[in-house]
């Protein structure tokens, strides 16, 4: 926690956010294997991880610095984190689509959408 004029600035609870996403990924993967097959589950899991891994890297970059004295470092870190997140997401999608059979492509996208929505909801709730 950082202090400013005697008041505490609350840090983003990134550890809780990552644990929450991991738990939801496990639940979604379990449900998808129960409803479909192992191939479908792996495709959904790939999409979920395509959403989670770049977000985790962005959080690591984005929340390294705090305070007004570090404003330029914070902005630079956010830009760097977002750039890496975008490039990594595109690369992971390319690898996933090359590695998975065409009939599972929709499941990769559905897993990614679920992962993004879970990240948004988790950020709002925390």
UniProtKB/TrEMBL annotation:
Membrane topology: Multi-pass membrane protein
Keywords: Cell membrane, Membrane, Transmembrane, Transmembrane helix
Major place of residence: membrane
Pfam families referenced in this protein's UniProt entry, alphabetically: ATP-synt_I (PF03899)
Domain of life per record: Bacteria
Keyword hit for Membrane: yes
Oxidoreductase is among the record's keywords: no
Transmembrane portions of the chain: 17-36, 42-63, 84-100, 106-124
Protein name, per record: ATP synthase protein I
Organism, as annotated: Umboniibacter marinipuniceus
């Amino acid at each position: 926690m950082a202090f400013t004029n005697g008041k505490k600035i609350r840090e983003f609870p990134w550890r809780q956010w990552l644990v929450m996403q991991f738990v939801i990924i496990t639940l979604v993967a379990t449900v998808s294997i129960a409803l479909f097959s192992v191939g479908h589950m792996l495709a959904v899991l790939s999409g979920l991880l395509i959403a989670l891994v770049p977000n985790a890297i962005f959080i690591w970059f984005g929340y390294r610095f705090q305070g007004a004295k570090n404003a330029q470092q914070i902005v630079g870190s956010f830009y760097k984190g977002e750039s890496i997140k975008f490039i990594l997401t595109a690369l992971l999608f390319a690898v996933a689509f090359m590695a998975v059979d065409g009939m599972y492509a929709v499941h990769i996208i559905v897993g990614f959408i679920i992962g993004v929505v879970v990240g948004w909801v988790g950020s709002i709730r925390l």
